[in-house]
Amino acid sequence: MKTFLDWSAYQDAGMGDAYADIPKHGGHFAKAVAVCINSRQCETAGKQVMCPSFQVSGNPNLSTGGRVRLLKAALSNDLTQEALCDPTLTEAMELCVSCKGCKRECEANVDMALIKVEYRAQQVAREGVRLRERLLAHMPRWLHRSPWLKPLIRWRNRSPLLARLSEHWIGISAQRQLPEPAPKPFTLPDASPPSPGVSADGRPEVVLLVDTFTHHFEPEIAEATLAVLQAGGYAVQVARPATSDPEPTRPLCCGRTYLVQGMLDEARAEVRRLVDVLLPHVQAGRAVVGLEASCVVNLREDGQALGLGDAVATVGDKILLFEEFLARESMAKRLSLPLRPLQETETLVHGHCHQKAVGAMKAMRRVLKLIPGHDFSMIEAGCCGMAGSFGLEAEHAEMASAMAERDLMPALRDKPKAQIIANGFSCRQQMCLHGDTRSRHLAILLREALVGTSCRSLSSNSARL
Ligand code: SF4
Ligand code: SF4
Q1: 20 to 30 A Cα–Cα from 161, which one of 108, 207, 216, 417?
Q2: Distance CA 198, CA 103 (A)
């Protein structure tokens, strides 16, 4: 069986382990599946991230281990491609929200989100890409090239007839509002000349990666990040496409929209384009900072299975989330942010699954503690259910809602006066769709707390629903 991702990292997995029961077909991919030790920990109730689809359905096939059992059966079948089309397996894989909870929480670190990418790539090779998935995957290009997209989304959101038609034709739930692009996308500041890690005036340099979704939907987050980093004494460059790039004005993108749909050639092209820009910065000793955990996960983990060589790992090892960067600088006593107490007495924090997957919640705590007298607590909840586009898809919207209503939305309703911090674009979108418009990115909160900024003047409902 030909595989589309590089699974060589698993070449020794399960070897010599009598219990591994490595399937006959799939090579190293089969070994990645077989790392599961069938402990069934993923089928227990609890506050963990793993596994949201099992938690809301109780169906063992929808647990990580359940998916492993189904996949092992398919990969052990000599008619592998036919077996991979088995409807029970197809449903189980479709309902994996790629939260990476299993990679972090399962004792064998089963990476079902990456396994699903291979599964989708096999599906794409067999059946092609369906219209909805094609549209969603190409969003970074549509958003840049198609000025008619903004009014169309607005029109669709306000017209029940168009919403019903979009469900009928494309499979986007008529019950869900689509996120609307900002009136004006992020504007790249003028480029500053490169220097070896420290700017001409002696300030340490930081390179900010403004991802596609922040660029088009919530440019105020990128602006707030720039303001906070500059107030912290950093010289900030925004990563921009090379002048030789065939699309020099299209924002850089991590390629995740393609990767999750199994469109790996397109994902490779995006990751290569991004890494070509970031690598020289990393080599020059500049810190590279991202805002969306999914983009950072793409470079740190999934992008490395695309077979693009060491450059992806070099950049992936160095890229930090905004909160990780600030926490690192604060621990090294290099950060001095002029912050003052906030008016709000209470803050609730919801972690994006991929923030948890990369262990960034500790950094969130550390940074939130920098605000004097700030009382905050973490919401104990798993996946919000939006998971990219999962919560917008007609056949998945109900399950996505059940995920949101399991812990997250009740926790928000319990504290109607608290402010909410959620760094994930999808999480903020899901909260808005469930009637709570309070959530904001950490960068917006920190900019508000900067001494010299007028209180609440900069806050906004960032999800624009
Ligand atoms: S996926 Fe992980 S937690 Fe679930 S059964 Fe396998 S080893 Fe246990
Ligand atoms: S990635 Fe998330 S949804 Fe998918 S199997 Fe793992 S825990 Fe479950």
Answers
A1: 216
A2: 37
* All structural domains of the chain: 8-127 (1.10.1060), 337-449 (3.40.50)
- Phi and psi for 456 in degrees, rounded to 5? 65, -5
Under a CB-based contact definition with an 8 Å cutoff, are residues 27 and 82 in contact?
Answer: no
293 Cα–ligand 2 center, Å = 16
Whether residue 348 has its Cβ less than 6 Å from ligand 2? no
**The pLDDT value given to residue 224:** 97
For the stretch 288-301, pLDDT in tens is 999 999 999 999 99
User: How high is the pLDDT of residue 198?
Assistant: 59
pTM of the model: 0.93
Please count the CA atoms within 13 angstroms of the CA of 290 that sit on its side-chain side: 30
Say what angle helices 293-300 and 310-318 make with each other, to 10 degrees: 140
Mean pLDDT over 174-190 rounds to 91
> Residue 459 above 60 pLDDT?
no
Cis peptide before 51 (omega within 30 of 0): yes
* Ligand 2 atom with the shortest distance to the CA of 113: 1
